[in-house]
Design goal:
35% helix, Inosine-uridine Nucleoside N-ribohydrolase, Chain A, 9 strands, globular, alpha/beta
């Protein structure tokens, strides 16, 4: 039976393909999508999310959430990466859908608290909505089977040398969630360069299936991503023509954690450093075992991924299992 899940997004290019995987997956029953300020402003995040739902071929409710970080003046965006509209300027058809009237935080709290059994939670953007929901009703922790987060970096960041964007955009929120007693699985930047990519051949199969609306959208986004990298003249460790959207990988690991090499770490978030604000500190020396450090700060962390299993999941979900090989 599909697992019920809420997905929190700041829909830019990688969130879009991640949502398409989650919504099309037979393993997940997406009960709602909540939007948060992040890659672009909340208005564009909502518009993009509604477009993705259109292209997914399913009917999923969308909710509006936090428009700023918990400390409003510290709000960040990544429009320089995703474009001002968040979808790289690709002219996707504007959606005629409307968002739900209920606020995202209220939807999160009410849905978890009313659930008959623990649900899954996936966060693909800054953790503002998640933190606000947890602060409003800490008992939701008992109603969450697993929270999978695209968050952090073990060895480095992508927004600063120390910080990954989703944590950097609201480190106070990230600290609240990482200090909670929710069962947490982090998918940081690191596995993107250790199996967490789709090869040029994988991408071409998706582009060639553009008669399927979800593949049409994903193919255009992947092509945009490849073109951006080529324009910058960056030599990719994963190979030319390959793509490694962080949020897509996070959803794949949420669907089946067995595709990843996962280890447990004590994790903390730096909120005050002049050069390290938003850095996720992973206790690789396991000093928490020797000191009285709260156990709720532990998280499972995906360090690498089986590329074959990952790509087969994506292609199998979008194209059918017979075309995933």
């Amino acid at each position: 039976m599909p697992r019920k899940v809420i997905i929190d997004v700041d829909t830019g290019l990688d969130d879009a393909v991640a949502l398409l995987l989650a919504i099309r997956s037979s393993e997940l029953d997406v009960r709602g999508i909540t939007c948060v300020n992040g890659n672009v402003d909340l208005i564009n995040v909502i518009a993009n999310t509604l477009r993705v739902v259109d292209y997914s071929g399913k009917d999923i409710p969308v909710y509006s959430g936090a428009s700023t970080a918990m400390i409003a003046e510290e709000s960040e965006d990544a429009a320089h990466v995703h474009g001002r509209d968040g979808l790289g300027g690709i002219p996707f058809t504007k959606s005629k859908r409307s968002i739900e009237k209920e606020h995202a935080v209220d939807f999160i709290v009410n849905t978890f608290m009313e659930a008959d059994e623990p649900m899954d939670w996936i966060t693909l953007g800054p953790l503002t909505n998640a933190a606000l929901a947890y602060l409003k009703e800490p008992r939701i922790a008992e109603k969450i089977r697993l929270l999978t987060m695209m968050a952090g970096g073990v060895d480095s960041g992508n927004t600063t040398p120390a910080a990954e964007f989703n944590v950097f955009a609201d480190p106070e929120a990230a600290r609240i969630i990482l200090s909670s007693n929710i069962h947490k699985l982090m998918v940081p930047l690191d596995p993107l360069f250790a199996g967490g990519h789709l090869s040029r051949e994988n991408v071409e199969k998706i582009i060639n299936a553009s008669h399927l609306p979800w593949c049409e959208m994903a193919g255009k986004i992947f092509s945009c991503n490849v073109q951006m990298v080529e324009k910058l003249g960056v030599k990719r460790e994963i190979g030319q023509g390959a793509v490694s959207p962080p949020d897509l990988l996070a959803v794949a690991v949420a669907i089946n954690p067995a595709i990843a090499n996962i280890k447990e770490f004590w994790v903390e978030v730096e909120t005050k450093g002049e050069f390290s604000r938003g850095m996720t500190i992973f206790d690789r020396r396991k000093i928490w075992r020797a000191k009285n450090i709260p156990q709720n700060k532990k998280a499972d962390v995906a360090l690498s991924v089986d590329q074959k299993k990952y790509s087969e999941m994506v292609l199998g979900t979008w194209l059918g299992p017979e075309k995933s090989l």
